[in-house]
């Protein structure tokens, strides 16, 4: 790992960061929090389904931590109604800031505990403390394990996500000190969970997060205790569709929108022409901005995805799709490179050597709405130029504020390079050649070029444009995989009606109303209940109706 690479986090940054955090904590509550009397009557009526909640023998725990969205809380409540007949009740762990969720939890007769009231009752062992204080190099932290988990990597991941950087400066005493203190505090808080009376009789846990504190504490706690962990994530389709996946120690590093080997072996030969037709419809809706959660990636660009970008010469065009540098870093298993940032730099260095291809570095479009891109400055370009003082003319940057639609760029390119990004899957669906450099999503499914090592990856890039042609079979497999991820794996909440208050999508800006006659008799909810009751099913799959 290059220890000289600088993430630009100096002491004054951390001083300002902690001051802002203290001010935020003093304010304590969200001023914009809705009141009970502003909620639709259909939401209040949910309480009638949970009258006997506290006398149940088994419980499902809702993780509703700081600033948790009310929309998700209501969806979780609805999908769990039918579990009451199987002797399941609901417990909620929340934050003081979630005023409305806390009030509703009491109204619904849920067992509620406030995270801030949970006491840390474990002190770290002296030998373990000494071991942590001896950590020095990046490799020391990467190899640190606790309870069989790669905890060093996970703590680094949390640091990077909080501070929106792609790596830690291990030559910085301050950053190393923060990582060590975080590691010590985490272990004490995590160990304390095992003595909490409130967490007894928990059989299932719902969560939307894995790597961000304090969700990580409960994620690892559930895996260690072999509690059934149900992970939810947005589908990048509409606001009412979610990807739901069951996690255990066995699949801890599996991507939420991957397909298990067992399922893939069952379906990989089930292609039909109708699947390609369905995928074209999904593409059109996604890239025209019709799907609100994905539309934030299209803020700056035009909606004309059929635009033909002019080619400047006869050379093949290759797009390097940069990942969000800090997004769930190290949560997909061992990588060829130390981080997304180091992968990006190494890939661009190889591109500099290969002048037989036109290279385009596409910076992730979500950097716009995340506030991580300012005109004239990009963290991705910054770290690249730290290593490369001169970037040759056959390499261009595609910035997040490009006016050209992402789909138009994918149609323009001949080759795509990614670790495991969605753009790589979409390129394969278009019949393009895709080179991966990561695991646990769609590699080795028969439609991408998957290097066996770092050396193999670099050799493939150096030899471009010489690469194996895309076959009809690989095109079919890509379309089949894509359709399962974006259509067959989506749990659709057809029991709720919504409208958006803001032009720019935000989960907190959703106004919603439950369709009460679609709650007790609903095949989607029946299928979801069956998924919850069957521990053998790793991923929720839509059943034909």
What attributes characterize this protein structure?
545 residues; alpha/beta; Rossmann fold; 3 domains; 14% strand; globular
Written overview of the protein:
- There is one protein chain.
- The protein has 545 residues and is α/β, with parallel strands linked by helices.
- It folds into 3 domains: 36-118 and 196-257 and 490-533; 122-185, no CATH class; 300-472, Rossmann fold, CATH 3.40.50.
- The protein contains 19 helices and 16 strands.
- The chain is globular and about 70 Å long.
- The relative contact order is 0.12.
- The mean pLDDT is 90.
Write the layout of secondary structure elements.
Elements (H helix, E strand, L loop, with lengths): L10 H17 L13 H4 L13 E7 L5 H11 L7 E7 L4 H9 L3 E4 L11 H8 L4 H5 L8 H13 L9 H21 L8 E6 L7 H10 L3 E7 L6 E7 L13 H7 L5 H15 L4 H4 L20 E6 L18 H14 L3 E6 L10 E2 L2 E2 H9 L7 E4 L7 H7 L2 E3 L4 H8 L3 E3 L18 H9 L9 H17 L1 E3 L3 E5 L9 E5 L8 H11 L12
Parallel strand pairs: 1-2, 1-4, 2-3, 4-5, 7-8, 7-12, 8-11, 12-13
Antiparallel strand pairs: 5-6, 6-14, 9-10, 15-16
Helix pairs in contact: 7-8, 8-9, 11-18, 13-14, 16-18
